[in-house]
Structure formats: structure tokens, C-alpha cells
Amino acid sequence: MIDEGAFIAALRTLPLHAGARGLRDDAAILEIGDETLILTHDAMIEGRHWLPGQDMADIAWKLVAVNLSDLAAKGAEPVGILLGHTLGDGDDRFLEGLHEVLTHYGVKLLGGDTVAGDGARTLGCTAIGRATHRPVPARRGARSGDAIYVTGPVGAAMLGFEALRDGNAKDSTAYRRPAPLLAEGRALAPHVTAMMDISDGLLLDCWRMASAGDGIAFEIDSARVSVADPSRRGECMRWGDDYQLLFTADPRTRLPVPATRIGMVSNADLSPLRLDGKILTPLDSIGYQHG
Amino acid sequence: MIDEGAFIAALRTLPLHAGARGLRDDAAILEIGDETLILTHDAMIEGRHWLPGQDMADIAWKLVAVNLSDLAAKGAEPVGILLGHTLGDGDDRFLEGLHEVLTHYGVKLLGGDTVAGDGARTLGCTAIGRATHRPVPARRGARSGDAIYVTGPVGAAMLGFEALRDGNAKDSTAYRRPAPLLAEGRALAPHVTAMMDISDGLLLDCWRMASAGDGIAFEIDSARVSVADPSRRGECMRWGDDYQLLFTADPRTRLPVPATRIGMVSNADLSPLRLDGKILTPLDSIGYQHG
């Protein structure tokens, strides 16, 4: 059995569409006539991406929302989704959650497939969107001198996860029902030099964005990062599932949506990422590794 | 737990795109600028859609091929695919098969997702194609007086499955490496009144096509059906996985590809399907029920 990194590296040797910046890395971009389509596919697996016994309505919401978040990071407006659904317990709740998320975001169900299966279920979703701005924002593109921003606090999903797991009185909504920042992504698209959604933790995604860039490094000032629980700042910056947008822009740009400036892009360094001046790497447990 | 029929019926109450004739029924059709896109998603699950121990190269081939076959039935030319891949044993062989099928059909990998999981694996594929003829052929559309055709023999996949399962000397290629009839689908699209690929058995898919139509019934003459093993005609007409194209056309149409005429479309009857004059229903074990 080969590991995931080797698998993805091998996939990149296949006939890839020019717009396909790889699996997991980025959404696919497809020029069709005068339009630019964005395509993403994310899968969730029982026991890994959700807690046993979780309400399947929340799983349906999250499955669609995480795909819409990929579209948000591209400044795309959603066209529709296709589902790959393994039938099982809680399908009635799944349908309710699906109805809620589709109507909430005005997204259409285009089609898909249902299969019957035993054991841990895998749920897949393909989302299709239409780019509203070209060039389409990408992970790659940050320039030395750019400022680094996040649209909101990180760590709320972590607190929500703990509330759900422990059954405590805190609100678990941020973990159960992430909100893809579609309007924010569209508003930001013309102003950013790079953009992605934070799915696997702020620091890991900063590392990825800096690594995708050309001869640059990210310098993050932890005190500037807005976190859901200031007493657990380090954890908040390492937990994923918040789906805030991380982006870079010329520091003189007047941004159309509120965002927190958390650092600066500098020229390439020993490492693509420094936190408060200290080099960090993915070996320092900087976020959620898939998975 | 609700059953698959109820699940799909409930999905149809969701906000569906106008082109989405439902999950499983048909591919989704999306008008984008001047182009018409076809989108399909099919999933395969370990132990249900493939035999334990099967070469994962064949599974990769089939996963992509069955999605391309859905595009073929729409007369579409493939643009690319997205994968939803659960990592596991045989991934090296999976990559080899993926490379083979993508290069063989000139299809590009656009993106996707990989997840780690235990237990039975689910593999998903979304295929995107560009319509070459409008209106796009559909299951619906057959008219009374049309002739019913199949592009080639049915039952070859059944014999291939048995060869693989029993380890006998027969050729298992038809089961392991189905060939989507992309060129045939494109050539036929301007001439047909209805078209679909035969994935679940000739008789079941005839029943579905007739049921999708408006006030029509299919009259099939079993002696005319080309089968891989004439001594097992009934089984050959009920086994799936052959991916021949089933279509209807005006009997005076000169067809651009070879096809066998197997019957006639008549006006609505007690049942949408008669075989040699006898009424058949899905309760008569006419094909592979998903699944």
C-alpha cells in the first residue's frame, strides 16, 4: 500500500487538465466558451470526518458547505452540486440537512449516484461554480510585501467540536454547520493576490499558501490572529474546519469586507513559514493532516 | 433507515436544476454560455461492484469507463473527470489503470479528493463532457412507430464476470474493461429519439426507457437480440455491465454506425414492456437492481 503523498504525486503525472492544480491543492478551473467554471470534489468518511451518532442533517450540511467554501475561495458563484451517496442510517435526516443547505445558499442539485454499502460510509460531493472574476484567485500568487489577512476568528469549530463530543453547554454550530463565505469570496476576488479557505488549520494553510508561491515566505504575528478562545491561541491556529478565507493583498488595498491582518509576505527564507519570528514546518504539528 | 427508492424520490423534491432528470436516471445537463455541459457521477463500492481481490487497475478503468459511457449516451465528448478516492490496498495498480483509461480515451484529470478509510472502500468519479448535438439525447423521447436498436451484443460482461470469478480459461475483458462507446454516441446523437447506455441489463433498461417516455411501450423480439451466448439468451438480456447503447429512431433513418434492431415502440399498453408479446415487469427479474 502506498501512502497518500505518493498517491497524489503519482496522480500529478497523469494527463492533467491545465486548470487542475492537483488533487486536494486547489479546485479545477475549466474554460468553457466565454465562461470559467470551477469544479471541486470533497469526500467525507464516517468515523473520520464526523463523530459516531452525529445528526446526519449536519453531515449533509457540512458536505455541501465545505465544497461551497472551495468555490468561495475562488470568488465563484455556485451553479450546482452532484452527490455520491452511500445509503445508510439517518438518510431521512440527511435529506433534511441537504434541503436546508441547498435552499439556504440557493444551490441546485444536478444529479449524482446512490449506492448501498456496509461499514463506514463515504459521502462525496462535486460542486460546480462560475467564476465571477478573472484571473481566478489561487493559492499561488502572493508577492513579497503583500499583507496576509483572515476574514474572521479561527478556533470556533474546535470549540464546537468539543461541545458536541463532550455534550457540554457550549454552542457546537460552528463545527456542525460551517458557513461558506461565498459573498466575501466574490467581493474579495478582484483585490487579492492569493486566496484559499482554511480547512485544515490556519498555520498549515499559511504554510501551503506560502509553499505554493514563488520565492516567498509568510511571517505571521500570532498576537494579531483573531481566535475563538484567547487562552488556547496555539490550538485555535492549528485546528481546521473554520472555513474562513485566508488571502494576501497589497497592504494599500481598501478591502471590501472586514478582515484581520495577521502578517506580511517576505522574500523566501529558510522555511516558507515563520510564526513570531520562529520557523515552523508541518512536522511541528501546525494543523490537521489529511486524512 | 429509508430505502433507496424513497431516498431518490425525496431527492427529487429538492431544488433541482432544470436539467437534472434525477439521480441515477440520467446525466445532468447544464447550459453554460453557448455550451451545453453534461455531468455524471457514479460510485463503486468494494464487495458490491467488484470482486474481492480484483486487480485495482481494472477497477480504475471501470470507474472511469462507466462515467464516460454516460457521456457517450448523451453524444458528449469528454472534458475531464474528478475523483473521490478512498486510499487502500492496490493503489499503485489503481494509478496504472487510471493512467491507461485516461490516455486511451484522451480524458484529463481535473481534480478531486483522497480520503483514508477503513473497511469497504467507495470510489467516486464525476465526469464532465461537452454536448456535440442539441437537443441532447435522453431516456425520454421514444415515439410510437420508432424502431428500437442496440449497438452490439449483450451478455459479454456476464461471461467475463464468470471467467474472472471461476478462474476459467474464458476472456474476462468485457467485464473488467468495458469500452464506452463515445464515437458511436456522438455519431448517433443527431439521429435518435431516445438513447441510454445499458448498465443494468437490456430488459431493465428497455423498461426504464419505455417508462420514461410519453404514452409508449416497447415490444422486444428476443430472437433479434444479439447475445454473447445464444444458449443463455434470457440471462444475457438480464445481465448488466455491457455498456452498449440502447436507442430508438425512426425506422427509415439511415444509421451512421452498425446496430441491431430488436423491436418496435408501440402505443401505451398495460405495461411499458413486452418480450415476445408477453408483459414483463421489474418484478420478473428483468435486470440488475441497484445496489
Automatic annotation (TrEMBL), chains A, B:
<feature type="binding site">
    <location>
        <position position="42"/>
    </location>
    <ligand>
        <name>Mg(2+) 1</name>
    </ligand>
</feature>
<feature type="binding site">
    <location>
        <position position="40"/>
    </location>
    <ligand>
        <name>Mg(2+) 4</name>
    </ligand>
</feature>
<feature type="binding site">
    <location>
        <position position="241"/>
    </location>
    <ligand>
        <name>substrate</name>
    </ligand>
</feature>
<dbReference type="GO" id="GO:0009030">
    <property type="term" value="F:thiamine-phosphate kinase activity"/>
</dbReference>
<feature type="domain" description="PurM-like N-terminal">
    <location>
        <begin position="25"/>
        <end position="130"/>
    </location>
</feature>
<keyword id="KW-0418">Kinase</keyword>
<dbReference type="InterPro" id="IPR016188">
    <property type="entry name" value="PurM-like_N"/>
</dbReference>
<dbReference type="GO" id="GO:0009228">
    <property type="term" value="P:thiamine biosynthetic process"/>
</dbReference>
<feature type="binding site">
    <location>
        <position position="288"/>
    </location>
    <ligand>
        <name>substrate</name>
    </ligand>
</feature>
<keyword id="KW-0808">Transferase</keyword>
<feature type="binding site">
    <location>
        <position position="197"/>
    </location>
    <ligand>
        <name>Mg(2+) 3</name>
    </ligand>
</feature>
<feature type="binding site">
    <location>
        <position position="70"/>
    </location>
    <ligand>
        <name>Mg(2+) 4</name>
    </ligand>
</feature>
<dbReference type="InterPro" id="IPR036921">
    <property type="entry name" value="PurM-like_N_sf"/>
</dbReference>
<dbReference type="InterPro" id="IPR010918">
    <property type="entry name" value="PurM-like_C_dom"/>
</dbReference>
<dbReference type="InterPro" id="IPR036676">
    <property type="entry name" value="PurM-like_C_sf"/>
</dbReference>
<feature type="binding site">
    <location>
        <position position="70"/>
    </location>
    <ligand>
        <name>Mg(2+) 3</name>
    </ligand>
</feature>
<feature type="binding site">
    <location>
        <position position="113"/>
    </location>
    <ligand>
        <name>Mg(2+) 1</name>
    </ligand>
</feature>
<keyword id="KW-0460">Magnesium</keyword>
<feature type="binding site">
    <location>
        <position position="42"/>
    </location>
    <ligand>
        <name>Mg(2+) 2</name>
    </ligand>
</feature>
<keyword id="KW-0479">Metal-binding</keyword>
<feature type="domain" description="PurM-like C-terminal">
    <location>
        <begin position="143"/>
        <end position="248"/>
    </location>
</feature>
<feature type="binding site">
    <location>
        <position position="26"/>
    </location>
    <ligand>
        <name>Mg(2+) 3</name>
    </ligand>
</feature>
<feature type="binding site">
    <location>
        <position position="70"/>
    </location>
    <ligand>
        <name>Mg(2+) 2</name>
    </ligand>
</feature>
<feature type="binding site">
    <location>
        <position position="139"/>
    </location>
    <ligand>
        <name>ATP</name>
    </ligand>
</feature>
<feature type="binding site">
    <location>
        <position position="199"/>
    </location>
    <ligand>
        <name>ATP</name>
    </ligand>
</feature>
<feature type="binding site">
    <location>
        <position position="200"/>
    </location>
    <ligand>
        <name>Mg(2+) 5</name>
    </ligand>
</feature>
<keyword id="KW-0547">Nucleotide-binding</keyword>
<keyword id="KW-0067">ATP-binding</keyword>
<dbReference type="Pfam" id="PF00586">
    <property type="entry name" value="AIRS"/>
</dbReference>
<dbReference type="GO" id="GO:0005524">
    <property type="term" value="F:ATP binding"/>
</dbReference>
<comment type="function">
    <text>Catalyzes the ATP-dependent phosphorylation of thiamine-monophosphate (TMP) to form thiamine-pyrophosphate (TPP), the active form of vitamin B1.</text>
</comment>
<feature type="binding site">
    <location>
        <position position="26"/>
    </location>
    <ligand>
        <name>Mg(2+) 4</name>
    </ligand>
</feature>
<feature type="binding site">
    <location>
        <position position="49"/>
    </location>
    <ligand>
        <name>substrate</name>
    </ligand>
</feature>
<comment type="pathway">
    <text>Cofactor biosynthesis; thiamine diphosphate biosynthesis; thiamine diphosphate from thiamine phosphate: step 1/1.</text>
</comment>
<dbReference type="InterPro" id="IPR006283">
    <property type="entry name" value="ThiL-like"/>
</dbReference>
<keyword id="KW-0784">Thiamine biosynthesis</keyword>
<protein>
    <recommendedName>
        <fullName>Thiamine-monophosphate kinase</fullName>
        <ecNumber>2.7.4.16</ecNumber>
    </recommendedName>
</protein>
<dbReference type="GO" id="GO:0000287">
    <property type="term" value="F:magnesium ion binding"/>
</dbReference>
<feature type="binding site">
    <location>
        <begin position="112"/>
        <end position="113"/>
    </location>
    <ligand>
        <name>ATP</name>
    </ligand>
</feature>
<comment type="similarity">
    <text>Belongs to the thiamine-monophosphate kinase family.</text>
</comment>
<dbReference type="Pfam" id="PF02769">
    <property type="entry name" value="AIRS_C"/>
</dbReference>
<dbReference type="GO" id="GO:0009229">
    <property type="term" value="P:thiamine diphosphate biosynthetic process"/>
</dbReference>
